[in-house]
Records
---
Amino acid sequence: MARGGPYFSKLLLNAIYFGASKFSPRIDVRSDPDDPRSAGSVFRHRTKDLLMPALERSDITTVQALLILTNSLFAMGQEKSTAWMYAGIAVRMIIDLGMHVEDSSSNKKRGLAHEDIEIRRRVFWAGYVVDKIQALYQGRPISLQAATCQVPLQFLDQYEEEEHWQPVGFSGSVHYPEHPTYSVSTFTSLCRLCLLIEQTLNKIYAVQSLKRGPDGLLGDVEKLHEELGQWYTFLPAHLKFDPSSPNQVVPPPQVLSLL
């Protein structure tokens, strides 16, 4: 940020501030001190001002900012149509930047270092996940299809996997055992789940799926049910949670949301 590197932009910074504000107890981030839903409004206004010039060319930081804004707006129940549009623009930029197809020859031609490849790969899969979640929750068609993409679901940097996780605002009087964040394995598993969500939306809920008849639909449902079972079976042990076990610690929300 201080050096103005290629992976920093004011738009991305303010999008992060906006998304983080909804978790902040600080009154000064609210436009209305009595309304928690107004948290981050000043950063939201800044992103609106910064977004228009950023749309003149595709850029990874703009993709990241759009995905963050999509999630934040939708999670807050605000501007759902805007969230959908932002996700769509992010997908178009991903394709425009060629991030949906990865191969060693194109990476060499672009002069991409390992760090660049890792960033592009993570941003692609983030866009893929957001696209599926938006389509699922808003009842819209999928924009980014796996059949038109070729990006490995394997991440080189595992550093944050074992970072310590602590609940935000957790009462100091209640002890929560130390727990790794498991961010990389959680994200990887979420991506695999979204691949199945894509199949579900395409085969069960697509308009043309009605033409296949009840027998064809039933066969698809049974196959998808089996594949979901396999997805859960092959989850890493640290991502599984049995609520009936009295000795198992409740995992972080990002892990729990998978289940």
---
Amino acid sequence: MKTTASEHDRVEGTMSPSTAETSSAKQPKPTKSELSTFETLKARIRHHYELASEYYYSLWGEHIHHGYFLQPNDTKEVAQTQLIELLLQRSNLAKGSTILDVGCGIGGTSRYLASKHDCRVTGITISGKQVEMATKLTKDASSQNEVAVGEPITLGNGSVRFLELDAETMGEHFAGQSFDCVWISEAMSHLPDKELFFRYAFELLKQGGKLVVADWFKAEDLTEKQVEDDIKPIEDGMLLPPLCTQTQYVDSAKEAGFGVFSDPFDISQQVSKTW
């Protein structure tokens, strides 16, 4: 289900992790017209997660993302945390970092980064239902019971809070704030305006901060028939705007001012057991 940055052995939607690091150049803020694109699709995505998040929790557990299977006896839960650890390893993210977890779902990754890596995490999702579930699950894992929605909850030596927020408005919402890391795992493929996301991520990162990405991609140089037969059904079924190639992500990141810290790489075989 995944491909490398430079070679593609399957005609499918794919996913690959990569890490980018900020440089000094800044890009202009997007226009209001850019922020208003694909509103109908975003409304469908929001509605989908409002209805389906409890089902996903019963099916996937607290981590609504793939597992990275290394051993034959790895459980789904172990494999899911191994994917997080893989991203931490490749990004060399320091303990105690401040992290913006974009498309945080019901907060599994945010809680892991806070409790196991001492990070101070802000998780954002377009779904109010997911904020509600993430906050409850985090309170259950913490000694803090009386915490208002949106306020930090202590987990170990870290903390986490959750906000209902469209990622395409995060630059405006967090204006004046900065993070050590913007983390987005299997969520950017939902975003209609990826160039806007990269610009906002760059603006919100401290000098030397890192953007950590895992996502689905389409292969390079597909024929029209391959796109129609293999890619369109994935896009329609998963409520996705047109899937990008890995090269398009890297190019967009560079245009926003990023430098590549860790090249995209293929973990197709290791995650295929998730399905």
